[in-house]
């Protein structure tokens, strides 16, 4: 049961080869673009690595880079093959190369599609990684004298100013953490002592946020401290004040930023996937059409081209059988070794 | 005595024409680069135009933009001319245009040089402009309800955050102006009223700065208020003070930023000027060589090419003479043939009747 049979007269074969040559060079450029996009994404993720707890999401840019490099090789060979395809003398030397070539190409093309799907699927993992990372960042904000944590304050401040966000979920996260170090608290002051006593863990908590949460678009000078106390500031209402500090949480801001970036890259990679797929399909048609010409005297006859010789299931089994046989053979060798090892013991 | 005289054989003339055609096309590309540099500079100045007092600094980018466009046109024409110059027949078409074209290109090249020099000389004017602009911007910082000034607060805050600077010369500039609007001052509070009364002009001045002056490198939470009061806070020593706010003034920060940009642009424009000068010299040599070949009559002969036909002094003298004689077109006095007694007239005797004897 042949899959997708098509007739190819001589002129159509020539046109197919020419079109395929052009297409494969476009696909080479597209492969380089995929690699570049993977690098861009990886650089962007690494820039904010200190607020991410794990690097699971890096699998997306890594896959894109691998696929980009592989498609450079695939398309280079595709252009070489289609150059030789119309020459009956040079085409047969590619005969043994083509079967593993198509297997590898299909694998990498499917991997490209998987990378796009993963970029949408990794949203949850990215979000949880950011949640933990930001929580730690806010917790260690005050530890500017502890090695390994001294740059957390700087990072969080810069992050909040650049992404116009405050805290993890929102600005109230700062109310639950002591973000002013004990070194700068005057323990002789009554107010400080009261506040520390009123807290179960002995922490200095206050309803204030760092200066990096301040919104420059606010018409009034920034109110950072005593945010929930309406009477502490003139003409101020905590519930209705929107422009004073950033109301968005940094987790949401970062997730939106990265998902936007990955969506744009995903759309580009999807179109590159379609281009690559069409290159492979055209090459397959050209190969099967030229194989029918081999050995004939008149090279200009009409031939048939197809995608798969057998049905899809049979073709898959055909490719998997050698792999399975290899695995079974190793098993059999092991079984043989254990039985031969057991029998001397028995005797 | 010609300046820079070089002999050109036929093959050399053709080679020169080809090379010049290529160089002219490269010059078109450099013209595009010049144009885009002007555009880039204009955009950069536009970004912070609100903190600059006057738009006098705009003439540098405009000059670069017009010069870039002129470069593209002139060098495109030059490419066409040089392509035709290889052949003496086609050269005849361009013969009359060549001299004006070379003079035009000479003036245009001097404009490029002027543009490059302007980039380096603009520093003092920029500093003055920034000083006045920043002073006004800080003065109107609190006027977020006045139309035309409502975004000045945001601009100044973003400027201080992005360039890591505070105030005009330093952070103390904020102590001398009222940057908190009266709308947000509680006039019933005695402390506020005292402060207002203690100031001659009734302004609410304080030793505090806006939040955008806070340094992200400080290890402690930002101290914005009571900056002059050492005892107001724990351990507020010299080192804490150094790291707390941005130390640099915004005028210095912006000046450094723009000077850096203009110096790089100036250097690029100088290199482009040198290249244009090279092309101009080549075109002049080609023009003079082709004209001399036409004078000789045979296109296969060798000819001379030069930059100037006579030395500079002689050229100046001849031009001066032309100018001197310009106004004297119709004056009769200088006609050398008038009133000079001829030699024959001196010896002229009045005709007498003489008898001519006929000899037979």
From TrEMBL, chain A:
Keywords: Membrane, Transmembrane, Transmembrane helix
GO (cellular component) term, any one: plasma membrane
CDD domains: peripherin_like_LEL
Compartments reported by the entry: Membrane
Topology versus the membrane: Multi-pass membrane protein
Domain of life of the native organism: Eukaryota
Residues annotated as transmembrane: 59-79, 100-121, 265-286
Alphabetized Gene3D superfamilies for the sequence: Tetraspanin
GO annotation terms (biological process): visual perception
Family matches, as Pfam families: Tetraspanin
The keyword Electron transport belongs to this UniProt entry's keyword annotation: no
Similarity remark: Belongs to the PRPH2/ROM1 family.
Name under which the protein is recorded: Retinal outer segment membrane protein 1a
Originating organism: Acanthochromis polyacanthus
From TrEMBL, chain B:
Keywords: Membrane, Transmembrane, Transmembrane helix
InterPro entries per UniProt: Peripherin/rom-1, Peripherin_LEL, Tetraspanin/Peripherin, Tetraspanin_EC2_sf
Lipid bilayer topology: Multi-pass membrane protein
Pfam families listed in its UniProt record: Tetraspanin (PF00335)
Compartments where located: Membrane
Gene Ontology process terms (BP): visual perception
Membrane-crossing segments per the record: 20-43, 55-78, 98-120, 265-286
GO cellular component: plasma membrane
Domain of life of the organism encoding this protein: Eukaryota
Membership in a protein family: Belongs to the PRPH2/ROM1 family.
PANTHER family: PERIPHERIN 2 LIKE-RELATED (PTHR19282:SF184), TETRASPANIN (PTHR19282)
Official protein name in the record: Peripherin 2-like b
